[in-house]
Specification:
Largest sheet: 8 strands, mixed
Helix content: 25-40%
CATH architecture of the largest domain: 3-Layer(aba) Sandwich
Strand order of the largest sheet: 1-14-13-11-10-9-7-8
Distance between the termini: 6 Å
Strand content: 15-25%
Number of strands: 14
Shape: elongated
CATH class of the largest domain: Alpha Beta
Amino acid sequence: MRTRRAFITLLGGAAAAWPLAARAQQTAMPVIGFLNSGQPAGRANFVAAFRRGLRELGFIEGQNIAIEYRWANDRYDRLPELAVELVRRQVDVVAAIGTAAPGLAAKAATSTIPIVFQTGSDPVSDGLVAAMNRPGGNVTGTAIFATGLEAKRLGILDEVVPKAAVIAALLNPNSAAAQTQLQDVEAAKRISGRQVRVLTAGTDHDIEVAFGTMSEERIGGLAVTSDLLFNSRLEQLVAFANRHSLPAIYSQRSYALAGGLMSYGTDLADAYRQTGVYVGRILKGENPAALPVLQSTKFEFVINLKTVAALDLAIPPGVLAIADEVIE
């Protein structure tokens, strides 16, 4: 396995002191509230990356910090009550991760406890912060490019399966990003001139139906859009694609590690690490209002050569050359 890394860009300037010591609920061992809209299954590496970020600031779970984990298990309606639980627990910082929803739930639950969000959408338009450079209030975090990359994925797929008459894009119609993703797919379709079949799936049953449709219509390639539902079903998606001998590109490295052909997207593990770093900085006394929102510009393109061989594909040298990681 070989790896080449990109970078993450910091937006903004220095941070001021945050008077944590003045808070009555400050304890000998700080408690971090970890609020995630997804489910723990398949996210162990991301949680480990979060802890790694904390460790960079000298905080180790079980030694000098405690972490209270709350998972919504893809049920967004549970986020408000989970956020309130953490506030009642008097945690010192809330790490709100997954989409804008955990951050918004935490923000509605408290205006005093610092919040560090991680979202794939625009935090300003979502109402999380007033501005990227000077977020204000008790909230800051990381904005990752989880959407808007469908055209890039389709472009890579186009080079890998140039003879395919039709390729497909799978998206979740229930996602807040669905309309943006569809527009991105349509734009890529116009530029390439390739016939792209858009299929939707919002449930496990829908996923099975979509793959049945792809098999019946002899689809030659598949681009899976970035979505929390798909990410929590990544093994199912990879198994379906490989069973149907369907070359596919996904949004996260986790898919390629699970046997998916290719992935292109934001380095989520690094985003989790950076979230941990920000939580650590706040625990050390920095003010979230003065910590600029980070914008992740670190992307990964991963190719699984075992799956390449299983699908009897020939990856063009130009595509292989730009891969950040090749699983052999």
